[in-house]
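Listing S7. Sequence submitted for prediction.
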Amino acid sequence: MKTVDDLRRANLHALSVEFGGVGALATLLDRSSSQVSQWMNGTRHSVSGKPRRLSSDSARYIEGKCGKPDGWLDADHGHAASVLDEDADVLDVPFKTIDAEIPASSESKLLADAAELLRLFSECDAAGRAFIISAARNAVRAMLSNHNSANHG
């Protein structure tokens, strides 16, 4: 069972994706990017060594600034929470797979892009990997939505 701290970190990550990244969320919250990042990652305090927690007062403040109801950060919404768990084997987020043929002329560029993504991914901690996956999924969903709108409208 996930703790309230786990849920708040996962949901704060989801808000960072929703609002365009940690910097954009920090600006909305009138906080520094480093503070928001430390909340998301549970970064250990340099003096106490304890993970930084998002207090209930801060959680309610964030919910209000983001237009979420009180308690939203404390609830399991099923998005990316398992990615933030270092022991998780698979993502707990449904995603429709896409079957597509790749033209031979694009294959080497695709492989180079995939290698770059893998390099970046391997340098991230669990929260960073969750962010990359979520951002990629949102980008694909937006692209498919735009494509479907263009074909049906």
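Caption to Listing S7: primary sequence and predicted structure tokens for the chain studied. The chain has six helices and no strands. Residues 80-99 have pLDDT under 50 and may be disordered.
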